[in-house]
Amino acid sequence: GKSLSEVRDIAQQACDNLWSLGVAMQTCNLPGSDDEEGRIKQGHVELGLGIHGEPGASVVDTQNSKAIIDTLVTPLKAQAGEGRFAVLINNLGGVSALEMALLTKELAHSTLKESIAYLIGPAP
Questions:
Q1: Tens-digit pLDDT profile for residues 51-83
Q2: DSSP H helical ranges for 1-124
Q3: Which DSSP state fits 53?
Q4: Over the stretch 24-35, which tens digit does the pLDDT of each residue have?
Q5: DSSP reduced 3-state for 89
Q6: 109 assigned to active site
Q7: Pick the catalytic residue: 20, 31, 52, 79?
Q8: The dihedral sign for the CA sequence 60, 66, 69, 73
Q9: Burial level of 82, CB count in 10 A (0-12/13-18/19+)?
């Protein structure tokens, strides 16, 4: 029942309050690529890696689940500020259910824990 301009304003407000943070332990395998090793070295994770193998923003020297969650939560809190959050934990398919559960547990115990109003996932 809203006008088109009201719908646009609501959609813009949602976009202005949406953040996406990704982490990967390996890149995808691109057909025709000769990069067998991948650019992410063993024991490291890449933050912000694109789902088509685009380079991320930085590489972190850890695969510790608590350190990874802290690395994601810190800039999120700085950018988003205080408030209540709906958090989607999305697995693009390369992580086991057990590992996803561990990351979810770390998130539930992170500095963001009091601000999570809705938790969707973990799921593919």
A1: 777 888 888 898 899 999 999 999 888 888 888
A2: 4-16, 65-80, 97-108
A3: S
A4: 888 777 777 766
A5: strand
A6: no
A7: 52
A8: negative
A9: exposed
